[in-house]
Specification:
With 310 residues, this protein is mainly α. It is built from 19 helices and no strands. Helix 15 packs antiparallel against helix 16. The termini are far apart. The N terminus is likely disordered.
């Protein structure tokens, strides 16, 4: 494999000279489709040396940098792409998403606004609004985010991203029945979408409808049996419906897959309390705290530990 890779690199300058920009872009995308981001980045860098005014090279290299964990490098490339093609929606849109990933929300908002101003299609506008609205929540303007989701649905009533993100926000602000309605519409478009199934299950759980939640977590596990979170969520639902043994099996599986999940240790503690195993419950609560439960979710485990463990 190493020899083959070296041969490709040795032949690379010949390909570069022979290929048109469209062919170079196609080649880079093929490498990226195979998750060869290092190779694609090297290829695109050589393309840029030959043709520095092609914004698509910078745009694709930005994606490579992002996938390789270089957020600042990704921003630098997108800055160049925008400078070369300031009316391109996708360049502004992508820089907004990178700023979002880097938690630079104010900068992300500015780029989303610019992308929206340049966008003409109803569907594309709705999708960008679906991504922009969570930024507003992070900036403390939930009312404006809700208004934006309503506007986005008016543009495209079946937009998958709008339905999912809007549904999640409604659940967060205790409007769970409305959240279920929107998430169910999204699920009808893709019944095997793990995240949507998980979100519906979680929403039913939040509503105390544990029996209704379990089939959605069942589906998540069938679709992705190595994901720890559906097992932990299903464990809690099984505990609340009286299936303590099933709950214990599920939460132990979850912890095996992801030992650092503080919420799973919290659930394990609750299960052991139900079983009358106080010493084991207290040890589980201690693990939950060790893995940062309080920072992530609040003082619940501290209070349960104080109440049950002395």
């Amino acid at each position: 494999m190493q020899l083959r890779f070296l041969v490709v690199l040795l032949l690379f300058p010949v390909f570069l000279i022979a290929q048109t920009p469209a062919e170079n872009i196609k080649r880079a995308k093929e490498m990226m489709d195979k998750n060869n981001f290092k190779g694609a980045k090297k290829f695109l860098s050589s393309c840029i040396e030959k043709e520095i005014n092609n914004p698509e090279y910078f745009y694709l290299r930005a994606e490579c940098n992002y996938q390789l964990g270089d957020g600042q490098g990704s921003l630098g490339d997108l800055n160049w792409a925008i400078k070369l093609a300031p009316d391109s929606v996708k360049y502004w849109h992508n820089r907004a998403t990178v700023y979002y990933a880097l938690m630079e929300f104010a900068k992300s908002e500015k780029d989303y606004l610019k992308a929206l101003a340049l966008t003409r299609g109803r569907v594309d506008s709705a999708t960008i609004m679906a991504e922009y609205a969570p930024i507003l929540v992070f900036l403390g303007d939930t009312a404006r985010a809700l208004k934006m989701y309503v506007e986005a649905l008016a543009l495209d009533s079946l937009n998958f991203a709008v339905l999912v993100n809007y549904g999640n926000l409604l659940n967060d602000i205790d409007r769970s029945p409305e959240a279920i309605m929107l998430l169910t519409k999204a699920l009808a478009q893709d019944t095997n979408h793990v995240m949507v199934n998980s979100n519906i299950g979680f929403t039913y759980s939040e509503m105390g409808e544990y029996q209704k939640a379990i089939p959605y977590f069942d589906r998540c596990i069938r679709l992705d049996p190595n994901s720890a979170f559906p097992y932990s969520n299903r464990a809690y639902c099984k505990l609340k419906t009286g299936d303590t043994k099933g709950a214990l099996r599920d939460v132990q599986k979850s912890i095996k897959l992801f030992p650092e999940n503080s919420y799973a240790h919290r659930n394990l503690g609750l299960i052991y309390l139900e079983m009358g195993e106080k010493e084991k419950a207290c040890a589980a609560f201690e693990e939950a705290l060790r893995y940062g439960f309080r920072k992530l979710y609040g003082p619940e485990v501290n209070e349960m530990k104080k109440k049950n463990c002395g």
